[in-house]
Every structure is written in C-alpha cells, then in structure tokens.
Design goal:
Blueprint lengths: L2 H29 L12 H7 L14 E2 L2 E5 L12 E3 L3 E5 L7 E2 L4 H11 L10 E2 L9 E5 L1 E2 L2 E2 L6 E8 L5 E8 L2 E6 L4 E2 L3 H10 L8 E15 L2 E13 L5 E7 L12 E2 L5
Antiparallel strand pairs: 1-13, 2-12, 2-15, 3-4, 4-11, 5-11, 6-7, 7-10, 8-9, 10-11, 14-15, 15-16, 16-17
C-alpha cells in the first residue's frame, strides 16, 4: 500500500471521527434539558426533601473541566502476564484462587491488606495506574480500582481492577480471584471544556422524573465512560453518575452527559445487578 493511500485513509478516519463527535455534540445540545429560569429549582435539595427523597449532601455548583478522550485497550497477549493467568479475548486478565498463593486476610484490616496486595503483586499489569474506588467497591468481598485522567476516574469495564475475596473456615478472608482490564495511549480529542455541575445533573434528573418519590440518592460521581469505539480505539465522555435507591431497595444508576446535560441511559434506568 503506497504512502498516499495510507495518508488518505488516515485523513478519512480523522474526518469521520470529528464528524461523529460534532453530530453527538449537537444532538446532545438538542436533547439537553433546558433548566427553567425559576428560583424554585435553585434550592433543589428542598424540593427533593418535600417529596421524601433522601439526599447525601447539598449538591455542588462548582464547575469542572473535561475532555473527549480516546484510548487503546491494552492487549495483554502482548504483555508479560503471569503464566497462571487466564486471558479473555486478550483484553481481560483473570487469575483464580488455584494459581494464587493463599493470601490470608483479617476482616479488621481488609482494606489495608488488599491495598498491600495490589501495590506489591507482580501479577497485576501496570498496577501503579490504578486507584481505589469507594463508589464501586463492596467491602469486604469486592474491591475495585480504576484508572483516571487528570483526576477524573474511568468508571467503565474497559479500565478496572477487581479483587474478590471469600470467607475461610477460620473466620478470616482469602483472595479468591482478581480480574483486570486496562487502557493505554489516553489522549484528548478536543480542547478542555466546561462541564455541567453536580447540581445541574440532579435538576436534569428531577425534571425528567427519574427520581421517584421516597427514593434515596446514595451517591454521585463524575467519571469518564465509553460512548463508542472506532478502528480499535475507545472514545470516552465525562459523565455524571447518580446512584438512586427506590422504595423497593432496587439500585439504579443514571448517567448524564456532562457536556450536553442530556441523559445517556435511554428508556428504563440501569438497575445495578453487579459492579460494572
């Protein structure tokens, strides 16, 4: 294949990606929930409490900045992973209890001991690129670590480390399995942009009737989530994730595009059955 043909293919790919991003942006703008110019939503916390909705804190109006990002899924077949590991489609490392030296863990110090395992284990690829996620973890049996970019984590199945534990006969815990996905070559696709605030995201859900009466807003977080893949690269957008528990104790996760203030999840909300 000659150089001009390669150059042409790269140009077409670049233009296609930018056209898609532009379309996504303007579509999001069209779908954006327009916040009414009324002071009655300035204090959304009071409105929620009137409808018996429990909130974790007053919602922040601080503006943050973020990017459209692209990244490559790490191919573990091309990395030196432990010989005992099992690879799922080259992108996920799974290592089971049988191949891991027994790690006996005290329930009292489980977080610290899992942290020590993650920090020192040679079986974990690029272990220094992960940080602990309290939002996704379910101690004492599941601890989740994620990658991040300029302080905003990736909450996506493409870039997480999950350490799973189980009970032992002596009342302690032991490591049963860890699984790992990873991304690399993370780079911005556009310049940094202002994001909607946590307060804006809650108002959007409220106006769209996505917060039922009597529900509990368990937590909120700003994170990057994958929106699509093109030619082997994943594209991520800043997203507000809102965990809402209804009267029946079902936990749903709402996602708001932090650029366009539009709800990402369509139709029914996602009901959390497992950790991402």
């Amino acid at each position: 294949m000659d150089f001009k043909r390669i150059e042409f293919i790269f140009l077409i790919t670049f233009l296609s990606l930018n056209l898609f991003l532009a379309f996504s942006y303007f579509q999001g703008q069209a779908e954006t929930t327009q916040l009414p110019e009324s002071s009655y939503l300035d204090n959304i916390e009071s409105r929620l409490k009137e409808e018996k909705i429990t909130i974790p804190h007053d919602f922040s109006t601080q503006e943050k900045e973020g990017y459209y990002l692209s990244a490559l899924p790490t191919n573990f077949e091309e990395r030196e992973v432990t010989k005992n590991a099992r690879l799922n489609d080259a992108m996920t490392v799974v290592e089971d209890l049988e191949s891991i030296p027994i790690v006996d863990i005290s329930k009292k110090n489980v977080r610290q001991e899992v942290e020590s395992f993650v920090t020192n284990s040679e079986d974990i690829v690029e272990r220094e690129s992960y940080t602990y996620s309290s939002a996704l973890s379910e101690p004492p049996y599941a601890f989740v670590y994620t990658q991040s970019f300029e302080g905003i984590p990736f909450y996506d199945g493409s870039s997480k480390l999950v350490v799973t534990l189980e009970d032992t006969a002596n009342g302690r815990l032991t490591l049963s399995q860890f699984s790992q996905t990873h991304i690399e070559d993370v780079e911005p696709l556009r310049e940094k942009q202002i994001l909607i605030t946590e307060h804006d995201a809650i108002v959007t859900l409220y106006l769209a009737s996505r917060i039922p009466n009597g529900a509990t807003i368990k937590q909120t977080t700003l994170a990057y989530t994958k929106i699509f893949s093109v030619r082997g690269k994943d594209v991520y957008v800043p997203t507000w994730l809102i965990w809402i528990e209804n009267k029946d104790k079902e936990l749903q996760i709402e996602k708001i595009n932090a650029f366009s203030n539009s709800i990402i999840s369509s139709g029914m909300s996602e009901v959390r059955k497992e950790t991402f």
